[in-house]
Amino acid sequence: MANFDQVSLLLLVLVPLAGAVLAMFLPKDRPRDAWQFAIFVAAISFVLSVIVFVRYDYMAGGVQFQREYAWIGHPLNITLDLGLNGIGAPLVLLNGIVLLGAVLISQTITRRTRDFFVLLLALGSGVFGVFIVRDLFFLFFFYELAVLPMYLLIGVWGSSTDFGAFLRTKEYGAMKLMLVLVAGSVLIWIGILALYVASSQAGSPTFNIDTLAQLRTEGAFSRTLELWVFPLFAVGFGILAGLWPFHTWSPDGHVAAPTGVSMLHAGVLMKLGAFGIIQVGMILTPTGAEVWMPVLIGLGTVNVIYGAISALSQNDLKYVIGYSSVSHMGYVLMGIATLHPVGLAGAVLQMFSHGIMTALMFAMVGAIYERAHIRDSMILNGLIKRMGVTTFFFAIAGLASLGLPGLSGFIAEFMVFTGAFRTYLPLAVLGVIGAAITAVYILRLLARSFFGEADPQWDHLTDASPVEKGVGAVFVLILVAVGIWPAPLLNVINTGVESALSVF
Amino acid sequence: MSTGLTTNLYLLTPEFALTALAFLVFTVDLFLPERNKEWLAGLSVVSLISVMVIALLMRPAGSIELYGGLIVVDDFGLFFKIFFLAIGVGIIALSWEYARDRLDHRGEFYGLLLFSVLGMNLLAMSRELLTAYISLELLSFSLYVMVAYGLREARSNEAGIKYIIIGALSSAIMLYGLSNIYAALGTTTFAGIADELVAQNAVSPVLWVGVALLVVGLGFKLSAVPFHMWAPDAYEGAPLPVTAYLAIGSKAAAFALTLRLFAEAIVPAFDLWSEWQLVIAVLAAITMLLGNLVALAQRNIKRLMAYSSIGHVGYALAGVAVLGSDFALAAKAVIFYLVVYAVTNLVVFAGITAYYNRTGEDDIVDLAGLADRQPYIAAAIAIGLFSLAGLPIFAGFTAKFYLFAAVADGGFLWLAGVAIFTSLVSLYYYLQVIRQMYIEPARLAGDVGDHEPDAEVASEPANAHDHHGEPEAPVVPLQRPSWLLSGTMGLGLIVVTWLGVYPAPLLALIESAGAALLP
Question: Nearest by CB to B438, which of A76, A156, A182?
Answer without folding.
Answer: A156
